[in-house]
Design a protein that fits this description.
The chain is mainly alpha-helical. The chain contains 15 helices and 4 strands. The strands form 2 sheets. A two-stranded antiparallel ribbon has the order 1-2. Strands 3-4 form a two-stranded antiparallel sheet. A hairpin with a 2-residue loop joins strand 3 and strand 4. The C terminus is likely disordered.
Amino acid sequence: MEPVAETTLNSSWSWLPQDISQIFYIVVILSFLYVVLKGIQLYWWNRYLVKGLSCFPGPPTHWLYGHIKMVNSVVQHGSLLKLISPQMTKTYPYCYPIWYGRFLAFLSINHPEYAKAVFSRNGKKCLTYGLLILNGPKWQQHRRLLTPGFHFDVLKPYVTLMADSVKEMLDVLEKLIPKHTTVSLEMFEHVTLMTFDTIMKCAFSYQGNCQTDRNNAYINTVFDISCMIMQRLKTPLYHSDLIYWFSSQGFRFRKACKLAHQHTDNVIRERKKYLKNEKEFEKILKKRRLDFLDILLCRSVITGRVQCVPRPFVVAHP
């Protein structure tokens, strides 16, 4: 009985190498093959980018870092928006490439005709699929879903909300700038917060006071995500999804994205509860304006077709 059991055990594990060193050699060979194949892939990808962007003049690039050093110097001395400063647009009036290393590049477009060519439906290879370049029934379905949100009667009441956000920004600036003095102030952060506040009010009817409450966890998370995206662009090793996934920066990025998604999911979940409540449902029908979230939640897509809903769902009455 014992020899039979021993024979069965040996046959079940016969695929394993007898010498542990053979396992090490196999791992080394497979790793070497992976590195070689990845190197060949990156080489051809670089050739593809160089061929596609060679016809566009741009700032001189480093053979390894590209424009990363230039980007770092710009960020240290001011905003990244200085990359598209009047001097750059004067030197390159149409467009110019920006290289982050040798395997990641962007085309900065300065001229409207170039933008028209890229964002047209003929330039769909340059863009991901969305309402801008879709065609056919899918485009019609998405268009019918979003059109009510951009109706004039819907957008008109938003002017008051936008004005309130701008007024709140001006109140903040008045506190920062003493009267009867000439002081320069960086406006990028304040305008960003004002824009974000406007979007949250118009799209979600969310009153977050993000312009005055600088300890808002959601706002800080959004800013952290923006900084981490920029940091990844400036670090060539982080361009690899595998390396970035196992890095501490990648862990922080996934955690921040999870927090941001939880916030928006909670807002949508609470609004769905309101729609299920008949009293709240009647209040929404009587609202002078509907935010985008109400419009999208009240227009359901059934069997590939957009279901028409009563007029109060679609157009905000004056």
